[in-house]
Design goal:
single chain; alpha+beta; 2-methylcitrate dehydratase PrpD; 60s Ribosomal Protein L30, Chain: A; 4-stranded mixed sheet; 6 strands; globular
């Protein structure tokens, strides 16, 4: 009987002989466009700017000092080796919290998977179609592992750092063209690299985006090593001391249901069901933001007229996005009270919400302290398949209304249209690239499968 990594490798090898379904292709291009939308604003702030300084020797030249040796590129076009590009671009794409989500796996697949795929594709001179195919393979393999690991894994681990290693390794292995044996060994090796602790973003730090960058780098490393014959333990995922049990199920009596996880691999493509973020912050606050804005409009109240806001959410909304008094932009992105208050005060949660003077806005801060968070058992029971919130607003003149927000704008059941995705991309990319260059890049991304080189 084939082990998990062997079955995943067999899928990847077999998929090469199949044409890409037009719908899958369309959603894969959406994922890439959304990744670039997240990359550009993240590339001009920390930690990406600091990583560029830390790894300056790996940017612009190869190990022998030759300018032409590095073929992967950073967001600004500078060349770097594949591992450095994957690390820096992966971190940049996760920094401002606008990258995609696979809801059922509590996982951001794009930041690590696409960073790794692009770095290796550029280094190897791959075509746009080869790149897109690698993205699809990385998403399909990693999202199934994410869904199988579930809430038990998410208790302590940051799935984008841990599960992201599988997406990155799969995408890199696909670009290289590893046969199923070496592909399986790439996955086996990267399993032991999986890391990323939630404690890293429950207070101010730069570690969270680094999880995505490190996962991308780890995936590239594992694939390149496997190409040269480096082997891993093929039962590392389902073994008694393997990934499944050690990183979530050690006390659960049994590990994840891998049969169920892999049952529809190659038939039901998860990349067609991504959440595209509509707010620049932690996704666990999205339903509360959407619900609060809907209720404010229904009641016809201004922020100044609101006496109290009560948010009933699922556990992660409280534990991951429940910072009560955020002092920095990083903390504010994980503060549902601040996020709801700034949405009610200013009408949206965009990048400006995390800049001065908005962070210290007196009206927002005052309202923030009147936002109460509580666990809603029914909402929590539906997580992660449903990301909902129950919001109540009480006005100063005594009016009170409640709203149940069943999903988030951007989720598969309330998706952003292609036009809305284009608008998101231009809003985030144009300030970095310039309007004309951003529009030209967007046009190229919508025709990726026809590009001979990236």
């Amino acid at each position: 009987m084939m082990r998990v990594v062997e079955r995943l490798a067999a899928f990847a090898e077999g998929y090469r002989a199949r044409p890409i379904d037009p719908q899958v292709l369309h959603y894969a291009k959406r994922a890439v466009i959304d990744w670039y939308a997240a990359l550009y604003p993240g590339s001009v702030v920390t930690p990406a700017t600091l990583l560029e300084r830390a790894f300056a020797e790996e940017i612009g030249r190869d190990g022998d000092g030759n300018e032409g040796g590095n073929k992967a590129r950073l967001a600004d076009g500078r060349r770097a080796n594949a591992r450095a590009a994957a690390l820096i671009n992966g971190a940049a794409a996760h920094t401002v919290e606008v990258d995609d989500i696979y809801r059922d796996g509590i996982y951001h697949p794009g930041a690590p998977t696409i960073a790794a795929a692009l770095a290796v594709a550029q280094a190897k001179g791959a075509s746009g179609e080869q790149f897109v195919r690698a993205v699809i393979v990385g998403y399909e393999i990693s999202t199934r592992i994410a869904a199988a690991m579930g809430r038990a894994h998410y208790k302590y681990w940051h799935n984008t750092g841990t599960i992201g290693c599988f997406g990155a390794a799969s995408a890199a292995a696909e670009i290289i063209g590893l046969d199923r044996v070496r592909f399986a060994h790439a996955l086996a090796t990267v399993t032991t690299f999986a890391a990323g602790l939630q404690q890293a973003f429950r207070s101010d730090s730069m570690s969270k985006p680094m999880h995505a960058g490190r996962a991308a780098e780890a995936g590239v490393t594992a694939a390149l090593a496997a190409a040269r014959g480096v082997t891993g333990s093929l039962d590392i995922v389902e073994g008694e001391a393997g990934f499944g049990r050690a990183m979530g199920y050690a006390d659960a009596g049994e590990g994840p249901d891998w049969e169920r996880a892999l049952a529809t691999l190659g038939e039901d493509f998860h990349i067609c069901r991504m959440t595209v973020k509509n707010h620049a912050c932690c996704g666990h606050a999205f339903a509360a933001i959407d619900g609060a804005l809907a209720l404010k409009a229904r009641m016809g109240v201004s922020a100044k007229e609101i006496a109290r806001v009560r948010v009933g959410g699922y556990r992660a909304t409280l534990e991951v996005a429940g910072i009560a008094e955020p002092a920095t932009a990083a903390e504010a992105r994980f503060s549902t009270p601040y996020l709801v208050a700034t949405a009610l005060t200013h009408g949206s949660v965009r990048l400006a919400a995390f800049e001065q003077p908005r962070l210290g806005n007196a009206e927002t801060r005052s309202l923030m302290r009147r936002v109460e968070l509580a666990l809603d058992p029914a909402v929590d029971a539906a997580f992660p398949a449903q990301r909902s919130a129950r919001v109540a607003i009480e006005s100063r003149d005594g009016r009170r209304a409640e709203h149940f927000q069943p999903t988030r704008k951007g989720d598969p059941d309330m998706p952003l249209s292609d036009a809305e995705l284009d608008a998101k991309y231009l809003e985030l990319a144009a300030p970095v690239l310039g309007e004309e260059k951003a529009r030209a890049q967007l046009a190229r991304l919508w025709t990726l499968e026809r590009q001979s080189r990236l």
